[in-house]
Recover the amino acids of this structure.
């Protein structure tokens, strides 16, 4: 029984691999819309959304939203996000350096340095 079932499975796999054409051709399947139609539908959707947004903006007395305005806003948001990320990395670096410095100071029996003292020393070029 196992050999018969295995043989049928192998025969079906071989039939699928070596039969000419694709599975879509065998069942006569075609996409309902072409990629060009899908692209045009997306453009139409964006235009409708922009018109709706501008109608609401006009109703409350604001100016129309343009593509340039959206691009400028996205650029500003991205710049602010990168700046916040950079600030977070700087804070993390300072915290790690301070932890290492204080570990060494504790090993030598010296008092720990506060973050304010450490940042002041960094601002002075590490002269202390």
């Amino acid at each position: 029984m196992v050999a018969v079932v295995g043989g049928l499975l192998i025969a079906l796999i071989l039939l699928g691999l070596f039969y000419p054409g694709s599975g879509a051709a065998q069942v006569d399947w075609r996409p309902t819309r072409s990629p060009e139609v899908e692209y045009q539908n997306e453009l139409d959707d964006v235009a409708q959304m922009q018109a709706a947004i501008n109608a609401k903006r006009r109703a409350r007395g604001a100016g129309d939203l343009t593509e340039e305005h959206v691009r400028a806003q996205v650029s500003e948001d991205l710049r602010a996000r990168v700046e916040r990320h950079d600030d977070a990395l700087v804070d993390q670096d300072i915290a790690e350096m301070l932890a290492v410095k204080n570990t060494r100071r504790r090993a030598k029996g010296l008092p720990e340095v506060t973050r304010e003292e450490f940042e002041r020393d960094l601002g002075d070029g590490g002269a202390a």
In short: Residues 67-108 form the longest helix (42 residues).
